[in-house]
Amino acid sequence: xxxxxxxxxxxxxxxxxxxxxxxxxxxxxxxxxxxxxxxxxxxxxxxxxxxxxxxxxxxxxxxxxxxxxxxxxxxxxxxxxxxxxxxxxxxxxxxxxxxxxxxxxxxxxxxxxxxxxxxxxxxxxxxxxxxxxxxxxxxxxxxxxxxxxxxxxxxxxxxxxxxxxxxxxxxxxxxxxxxxxxxxxxxxxxxxxxxxxxxxxxxxxxxxxxxxxxxxxxxxxxxxxxxxxxxxxxxxxxxxxxxxxxxxxxxxxxxxxxx
Length: 259
Prior knowledge:
By secondary structure, the protein is α/β, with parallel strands linked by helices. It has one domain: 3-Layer(aba) Sandwich (Rossmann fold). The chain is 44% helix and 14% strand. The chain has seven helices and seven strands, in the order E-H-E-H-E-H-E-H-E-H-E-H-H-E. Strands 3-2-1-4-5-6-7 form a seven-stranded parallel sheet, sandwiched between helices. Helix 2 links the parallel strand 2 and strand 3. It is globular, with a radius of gyration of 18 Å. The model has no long low-confidence stretch (mean pLDDT 94).
């Protein structure tokens, strides 16, 4: 087996929402593995800080953009084209959530969450397709990794109706776009389970012990878990996989018991 089978050295990746949480974990994993990483988020200060931290491990730059706005998505795509003539990896991670009881759940929560979690990955993929196709090789196609959630695979125990629906839709969009872009671009999704992030901090504070006990592996996800799967899906080792939605949850969804 070639030592280069799992390598991403020399590849260029864009990670949206890459300044914190799972996005930053993936960005750090890719840059440590030798990829050039572009991170983006809507906050310029966060972008600057993340790029500075990532640059300790390799080549990293940041481009701020609010992907809820299609004009900002076009701005990001144009700026990426200025940074690199080809893009090997696109990680669609930027997202939002909203929590409210069913009776109080506002229409605006659907507009905000679906716009960023579902429409934005599609629009950005459209815009970056030419750069991805330039990077594609017959034995190592370009990659798109959409970050979904196990809450799009099973009914969550939280009042986050638009979030879970958006992630279920993103999983299906992954399959649909995979069929459209094959064979030059492979499109897969990662569906994370419980990871300690800013987004999950409130839930972990309230139910952390319960969530840990309910997981078959008796722990939460780590940065290495997120990075490991993302690097695999970005490497030649995954060249025969597209349209897959892979739970990254310690077996939580796969082993759920009923009755």
